[in-house]
Amino acid sequence: MEILEINHPLVDHKLTVLRDLHTPSATFRLLVEELVTLLAYEATRDVHVKKVGITTPVTATTGVKIADPAPIVVPILRAGLGMLEGMTKLVPTAEVGFLGLQRDEETLEVSTYANRLPDVLTDRQCFVLDPMLATGHTIVDSVHYLLSRGARDVTVICILATPEGLKTVAESLPDDAHVRIVVASIDEGLNDRGYIVPGLGDAGDRLYGVID
Ligand code: URA
Q1: Are strands 72-77 and 125-129 parallel, antiparallel or unpaired?
Q2: Nearest to 35 by CA among 16, 55, 57, 63
Q3: Secondary structure of 45-77 in the HEC alphabet?
Q4: How far is Cα 181 from Cα 155, in angstroms, rounded to an integer?
Q5: 0.90 exceeded by the pTM?
Q6: How many CB atoms within 10 Å of residue 28?
Q7: Ligand 1 in reach of 99 Cβ (< 6 A)
């Protein structure tokens, strides 16, 4: 598994505002979108392209366009949805699938409650969006779900990750899967409630507010 932690002053600046307890939801959503666009720029470095012939106002030439089948973007519900706009702005031809996984706050176990994905993902480059790679269980389940449908090239884009979560994901993967994690910051670790430290709190709540 390849891990890419993006070191860039713009990413660090936006992340600092995002972490701040006093940042309101509207600003938080906007910052997540901007951050994902910056992360997606790196995450799509190996996206498959094909050569195409075009004519400029001056001459005929060749260029590249994103190849078929189009990459598929898979936001993990609910917090991953907040990352979708930032990703599709950069790759508007990508298809979008959805995967709904939820975490039991006591046992930290993960279960699937929704999915909308093609049955066959062979030859598809998959981009999973989930802001918080905490214990790693959600990403393990998501990536294994995609692998079970034939995907072999999966990039996970996160805002924060923990060293222990990354280790859990790496140890769960088969040898023939090409999995990359692109993350704005690898934080210190988890607290006893499963939150990333220093983190930014509950990403879903900060994006969309708390439902009583
Ligand atoms: N999920 C979150 O939203 N925040 C954390 O800190 C950990 C998991």
Answers
A1: parallel
A2: 16
A3: CCCCEEEEEEECCCCEEEEEEECCCCCEEEEEE
A4: 6
A5: yes
A6: 21
A7: no
Q: Catalytic annotation on 123?
A: no
Q: In the chain, which residue ranges form alpha helices assigned H by DSSP?
A: 9-19, 25-43, 84-90, 137-148, 163-172, 203-208
Q: Catalytic residue at 205?
A: yes
Q: By alpha-carbon position, which residue is closest to atom 2 of ligand 1?
A: 202
- How far, in Å, from the CA of 79 to the mean position of ligand 1? 9
pLDDT in tens, the chain (212 residues): 999 999 999 999 999 999 999 999 999 999 999 999 999 999 999 999 999 999 999 999 999 999 999 999 999 988 999 999 999 999 999 999 999 977 676 776 667 788 889 999 998 999 999 999 999 989 999 999 999 999 999 999 999 999 999 999 999 999 888 999 999 999 999 999 999 999 999 999 999 887 66
The answer on whether 137 is annotated among ligand-binding residues is yes
User: Bridge partners of 153?
Assistant: 125, 178
Quick check: CB of 208 below 6 Å from ligand 1?
A: no
